[in-house]
């Protein structure tokens, strides 16, 4: 399949070829493609071949590449596949294979707008039970539209960035007034993020069928959440400080093209959705693994998500809102039906009332020094594993 | 005061000198300072004087200037004041005075993150009564923190941009299921927007007292709102499509420095706020005028706002969220106690039940072709009027 040596079980085989931005020593950041334990330093390879647009790889973000649109994405993917499969390219590529252990991976793109959805029925039901125990867990709108909101683009950070425990206001139900202090209920959310390449025009909705024309690929997202801040602040305008301190994303953007054989039909939507949400109803078939201080604590399955990514894009633009290159929209927490498939610790520990054991210690929410690593992969029809790599972060103490 | 002829009642006297981005014919967009009916084309003036950083004015946005920080903002203001007051500068400046009627004003800065607050007690109370008639209008958190949420930065548009009527889902209380179609309850929100220049560091809150180190100035904001879309979608994660189709801002950014003598003490906050929200408790003393198809329908006063802009910034960053150059945060709708001081049409028409008469026609919400222009000005201690100019927009029919 490829002339490059690949370790067993690598997330980055010759069918994947995700793109990211790396820094090697003191050199300027630029774009690479992951293959096995290496990356291909694309700028010098493209430059030596005198490719049109080779300077696009000599950039500190993927944004210029993303803006090129689908035909260029496909042409680039075909070029990459030829580089790694065709033995004739060995001499041109081998000098530019860099061990991934030698580089620092940066934020892969500059985030324009960040939207967070809420597309898992299991997660929305669990959170409804925990946040609003006295009413129906799913609100009346939930099965009619993919509920979402805008998050903070400026605090989307690269995998590996320390997460400083946020401080803010929280009010336990039994207290009369709020107090200020570090969050005591710091949590994760396992999500899949969709990266927009091709912009749309203000006033013109993006149809469900145009999803692959606009979205280049996916990243892993950990939407860190301070549940105590969130519970006090979120009415009536939604989550704000409970989420805005940090959102971590994985460094490698995996293309939809690489995932195209790794999809499953959407679960049945009942009641039927309005026409603008009908069409391309499939989900990427991705399984996540959540490692808390190295211990596997959950394996959320993307296949059970109620709303498809194409529906999310159609909904967020149905009012004429434009999308831009670098827009990121995330699925919302991915939670499966089984307890060990829940994608947040508030669900795994059922609001903190049912601690889980991590390396022999009881845990409900995150403690200082805790590290969470989320991985994910899809299995394509031929059995090839298309990995998303990982997104990781460690909790640093609150600033006093 | 100035050697430049000024028309009576101009918003842009020699104490104001707001900055904006203009396009003159086919020339590249660049930065100007407004004075009376003219603007000073700053790039050639600064270049002829061989000023450091004169290339900053030869830019299509104010972002590079905003990033310079407060000492540079003050030095620039002193230079501008000298240009317009000192007769000796006439020969250097006069050739670069451009009639404002000859240019197109563009979006003055590239918006990084956009946050919208909800800082008027009158407005929050009115909306609570209209959206949640069966419960207390102000929710328990409202007087403890400035409630806010993130809006869509990519759809902040220049004044004068047509507003295409958004379509989407709405469900009247009496219907069983939602329908899709153009919004029937299209509204405005009169707001003041605060423009961040100096960035902050992730993990480090911005204190109340550091407000003027980070915020350069203000713009007028019209946060167009589709009330029917908003009412159906907004639980539990807040407003999304009801707001994200467009937010218009005025072209001239008025500096805090120009407004420094035009402030009033904040209304009393009771209960007392937490220590991180204590400190610089004043509001700019701005009065707005709302013109609907040319008729003055409301004059909201900023002086009655419950939360100060410094408190909003301290709150939005108290969890360690960083701010970036180009961040825009808006006050939320400005509504005064009197009926003719309400800053939205849902309040002026009390949910559509009490139409108002505009040029002899009954109006509740916006009709296609309607135009709304919001102006605003502050009165400095010496009596000088510091105008914000205007933000305007006309409703275009929904895309079918």
CATH class call of the largest domain in chain A: Alpha Beta
Helix and strand composition category of chain A: alpha+beta
Distance N to C terminus of chain A? 54 Å
DSSP summary: helix tally of chain A: 10
Task: Name the CATH homologous superfamily of the largest domain in chain A.
Answer: Fumarylacetoacetase-like, C-terminal domain
Mean pLDDT of chain A: 96
What is the count of structural domains of chain A? 2
Inertia-based shape of chain A: globular
- As a percent range, the share of helical residues of chain A equals 10-25%
Main beta sheet strand tally, sense and closure of chain A: 8 strands, mixed
What's the CATH topology label of the largest domain in chain A?
Answer: Fumarylacetoacetate hydrolase, domain 2
| Oligomerization state | homodimer
Largest interface: A-B, 69 and 69 residues
Second rung of CATH, namely the architecture of the largest domain in chain A: Alpha-Beta Complex
Q: Which band does the percent of strand residues of chain A land in? A: 25-35%
């Amino acid at each position: 399949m490829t002339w490059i040596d690949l370790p067993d079980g690598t997330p980055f085989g010759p069918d994947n070829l995700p793109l990211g931005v790396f820094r090697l020593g003191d050199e300027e950041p630029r774009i690479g493609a992951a293959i096995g334990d290496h990356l291909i330093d694309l700028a010098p390879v493209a430059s030596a071949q005198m490719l049109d647009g080779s300077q696009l790889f000599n950039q500190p973000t993927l944004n210029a590449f993303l803006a090129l649109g689908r035909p260029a994405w496909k042409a680039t993917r075909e070029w990459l596949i030829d580089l790694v499969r065709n033995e004739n390219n060995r001499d041109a590529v081998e000098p530019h294979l860099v061990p991934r252990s030698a580089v620092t991976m940066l934020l892969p793109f500059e985030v324009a707008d960040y939207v967070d959805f809420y597309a898992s029925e299991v997660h929305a039901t669990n959170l409804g039970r925990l946040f609003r125990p006295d009413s129906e867990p799913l609100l009346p709108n939930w099965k009619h539209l993919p509920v979402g909101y805008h998050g903070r683009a400026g605090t989307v950070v690269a995998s590996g960035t320390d997460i400083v425990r946020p401080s803010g206001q929280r009010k336990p139900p039994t207290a009369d007034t709020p107090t200020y202090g570090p969050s005591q209920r710091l949590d994760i959310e396992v999500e899949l993020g969709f990266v927009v390449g091709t912009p749309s025009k203000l006033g013109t909705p993006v149809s469900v069928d145009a999803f692959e024309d606009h979205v280049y690929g996916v990243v892993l997202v950990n939407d860190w959440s301070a549940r105590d801040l969130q519970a006090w602040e979120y009415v009536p305008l939604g989550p704000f400080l409970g989420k805005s301190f940090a959102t971590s994303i994985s460094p490698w953007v995996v293309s939809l093209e690489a995932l195209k054989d790794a999809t499953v039909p959407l679960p049945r939507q009942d009641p039927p959705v309005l026409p603008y949400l009908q069409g391309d109803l499939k989900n990427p078939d991705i399984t996540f693994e959540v490692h808390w201080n190295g211990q596997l604590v959950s394996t959320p399955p993307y296949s059970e998500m109620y709303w498809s990514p194409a529906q999310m894009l159609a909904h967020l633009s149905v009012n004429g809102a434009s999308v831009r290159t670098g827009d990121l929209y995330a699925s919302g927490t991915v939670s499966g039906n089984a307890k060990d498939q829940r994608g947040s610790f508030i669900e795994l520990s059922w609001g903190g009332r049912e601690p889980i054991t991590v390396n022999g210690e009881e845990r409900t929410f995150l403690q200082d020094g805790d590290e969470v690593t989320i991985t994910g992969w899809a299995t394509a029809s031929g059995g090839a594993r298309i990995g998303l790599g990982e997104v990781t972060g460690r909790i640093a103490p609150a600033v006093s």
